[in-house]
Structure formats: C-alpha cells, structure tokens
Amino acid sequence: AGALYACEDSDWVFPSYRQNSVGILRGLPVATVLGWVRGYGGPAGFYNPRDYRLGPICVPIATHLPHATGVAWAAKIKGDRTASLAWFGDGATSEGDFHEGLNFASVFRTATVFFCTNNQWAISTPVTRQMATRTVAEKAAAYGIPGIRIDGFDPLACWKATKDALERGRNDEGPTLIEAFCYRLKPHGTADDPSLYRDETEAQKWMHLEPVARMGGFLRRLSILDDDQDDELRREAKEMIAEGVRGLESVEQPGPEVMFDHVYASDNPWTFIEGLEEVNSVARKPEVAPPQGPTPPSTGDAEPLPEGE
Fold this sequence. Notes:
Blueprint: E1 12-14, H1 20-25, H2 30-37, H3 42-45, H4 49-52, H5 64-78, E2 84-89, H6 96-108, E3 112-118, E4 121-122, E5 125-126, E6 147-151, H7 155-170, E7 176-181, H8 200-206, H9 211-221, H10 227-249, H11 269-284
Parallel strand pairs: 1-2, 2-3, 3-7, 6-7
Antiparallel strand pairs: 4-5
C-alpha cells in the first residue's frame, strides 16, 4: 500500500496475490476484489483493467513482470510519463519470467519498478534455498540497474523508495529493483501449517514490527491519531469488508464455462465447443471422469519389446 501511494493515477500497477488491497485502493468495489480472488468471472469478478490502470492477478508466479515491462515500453514509445509498478514475492525470483521482465526492462530502459516483498518464505521453501546471493537487491547488478533494499514493514520507506524509482524511470533512467525485506507472520494459506517447516518463535520475534501497529504508533507520536480515531477506522474497515462479502454472496456463482471467457480474441470452434461440452459433461456427473482427448493419429504398427524389457 505504501508503494502504491507513490504512483500517479496514470501509472499501471500489477499486483500479485498478496496485494489485494491494491485493487481496493485503486477504486475497485470490495465485492469485485473478493470475486477476483475467488476466480469469479462475469460481473462478480470482472473489471476492465484499462479503467483502473490495474493488471489482473496472474495465478502463475511472476508472469505479470513482462506485462509490466511491456506497458512501460509502450508508454515510452508513445512519449508519455506513464510508469509501471509490479509486486512479487521472493519465490518469484526463481522464475524465468523474473529474468525476462528485468532483462527486457533494463535493455530498453523502461520506467518499470520491480517491487519484491521478500518475506523469506515461498510456502515452505526458505529464501536461503532459492538463491545463492545474499539479497534480492544485489541481483540488479546483473541487469545494470539500481537495486535497493528497504524495511518492508515500514510504509514510509516503501513509499519513498518507490517514488524515487518512479522518478528515475520517468527521467529515462530505466527500471529499479526494490527488495522490501520483511517476514511472513502467518501461514501461507488456510491449508498451510508453518510449524511443520519453521520455528514459530521466529515469527513472534518479527511481530513487534508488524506494520499496521507500527504505523499507528508513529501517527500517535505525531498526534495525528488517537484511540477513538483508530477504533473508528477499524470499524469502518470491517464494515467495508463485510459489505463486500454480502455483495459477493448476493451474486450467482458462475458456472465452469466461464473459464473460456476472454481466453481467445475470437472463438476457436474446436477448443471452445469441445471444451464446453467436456466441462458440462463432467459437471453433470457425480464423479469426475478422466478427460477424453482426441485419438492421436496412427504412426504405424509399433514393434513389440523383447520379452523382459
């Protein structure tokens, strides 16, 4: 959230699955953000990215980094000030799209900010098993771009580093890699039990740096926030989310056929019709049958293997 506030309204932002607040802060209705998280198509989860300058969350890790680079490259070709900001986790640095995005951005000097939230765990894989470098930020040297490491639990540090990086990009100084060093305080997801692979006392040691409480304490010291205001903000936030949940629950859950929406520029008759029939066939059955693909063309009679092989 701190990084987002450094952006101009015309900038494009590309969140990963841990930046759902970015959708809300960019103006999406909460119900749409929740529908987006649940994979709903149609009115519940669909929005026009161009209206909000907000890329959709890509389920495969790091695939949005080349997208962010491409948007900034298009802006550069057109000669406007638009920059792009993409968030990703430490696990994404092990993906090929991380290299492709940074390499292309550095070669063409696009106004792209790559913001890595290094929470030190990619589900159960520690960052020490993902990379041989000591930090994510030092990877920037291989691309000839600035690499900055900041306190990822400090919203103001996130804002300042991102603002400076965006300005460099707008001044044709190319992209920046920001490593926001922090910690994943909770499980990766509801099906995850982190006690199986890490010492939970480690998370407790980080808890005093938790950014919401930390920012609240800072604002109190400046006499900008008091207990009554804090209580009211929390009440408003809870009601906003509850209203979004009610809005999503009032929408009919889409059928499986929406998986084909917005996949092709035009309908591919074989893929769409055959795929839709297969989906509907499986959906009607109490047990999911294995997919039945087309019979592969014959390549001639194969010779039997010798006995025993």
